[in-house]
Automatic annotation (TrEMBL):
This is SDR family oxidoreductase. The keyword DNA repair does not apply. It comes from Streptomyces pharetrae CZA14. The lineage of its organism: Bacteria, Bacillati, Actinomycetota, Actinomycetes, Kitasatosporales. Belongs to the short-chain dehydrogenases/reductases (SDR) family. Keywords: NADP, Oxidoreductase.
Length: 280
């Protein structure tokens, strides 16, 4: 039987925009109490007022800040049943031209941010013998793409981290899941080139999969589902064939077809100081 989500407490990092906001709305519609954390607390508070959530300041790169977020949510809403590590940011461009600051920023938010969330959630959930951690990854966590190499590396790291921790949690009553969507129509992908035969999802498409995973826990959920066998099949091919398939699907065109001017507003905002930041 699917799990009843009503009256559960759900905490979502990077919950004020894009996939995070859509996920919050899905859980609220299902009857859950939802907390969203974001660096730009003023924006998060406005979103929370609009959708019926509770907003808290959060910088996922700061372990103490993540712990403070956890403590505040539990003090206000009760024990956290589901923790969604959603915060993520992507900077597009040739790897060799990426600044050290941009590299550190992406690894900090996408990999260390998820790690900090998991470390904070596991202890309390293990002691209670229940809980569910859901990590938002990406299809590039399985297959790296040129033009977002550091982002791919961070998401690859989350996959490896999740694999190892999942084994450590076996028998504890704590579930761990990863969500692996193809690109969605969000600010994170603004201006990014599009591959052949690859549809752009909406944030709601991915949010519905998160809710489905909370109701029926599985370890990995690909979005859309058909990308699961396709991705796994690619790993069975010799590398030259995989490269040829990537060229056929135009995965190698990301750098050449991205509209970098269309990304200026997004990338400027995510690099801004904490008070003005975006998803984290």
């Amino acid at each position: 039987m699917p799990r009843d989500i009503s009256n559960k407490t759900v905490a979502i990092t990077g919950g004020s925009r894009g996939i995070g906001r859509a996920t919050a709305e899905q859980f609220i519609a299902a009857g859950a109490r939802v907390a969203i954390g974001a660096r730009n607390h003023d924006h998060a508070a406005k979103v929370a007022a609009d959708i019926g959530a509770h907003a808290y300041p959060l910088d996922v790169t700061d372990p103490a800040g993540v712990q403070a977020f956890w403590n505040a949510v539990e003090a206000d809403l009760g024990e956290i049943d589901i923790f969604v590590n959603n915060a993520g940011e992507m900077i597009v461009g040739p790897f060799e031209k990426e600044s050290a600051e941009d590299t550190a920023h992406q690894l900090g938010v996408n990999l260390l941010g998820t790690l900090n969330g998991m470390k904070t959630a596991i202890g309390p959930m293990r002691r209670r013998g229940r809980g569910h951690i859901i990590n938002m990854v990406s299809a590039v966590g399985m297959i790296g793409l040129p033009g977002c190499a550091t982002y791919s590396a961070a998401k690859h790291g989350v996959v490896g981290l999740s694999e190892g921790v999942r084994a450590e949690l076996r028998g504890s009553g704590v579930d761990l899941s990863i969500i692996l969507p193809i690109p969605a129509q969000t600010e994170l992908t603004s201006g990014v080139g599009k591959g052949r035969f690859v549809p752009l999802l909406t944030p709601d498409d991915i949010a519905k999969s998160v809710l489905r995973t909370a109701r029926r826990p599985v370890y990995n959920r690909y979005v859309p589902g058909w990308t699961n066998p396709v991705t796994r099949s690619l790993f069975l091919l010799p590398q030259p064939w995989r490269d040829a398939m990537g060229r056929f699907l135009k995965a190698d065109q990301l750098l050449r077809t991205t509209d970098y001017k269309a990304r200026i507003a997004y990338e400027t905002r995510v690099k801004a100081p904490t008070a003005e930041g975006a998803g984290a």
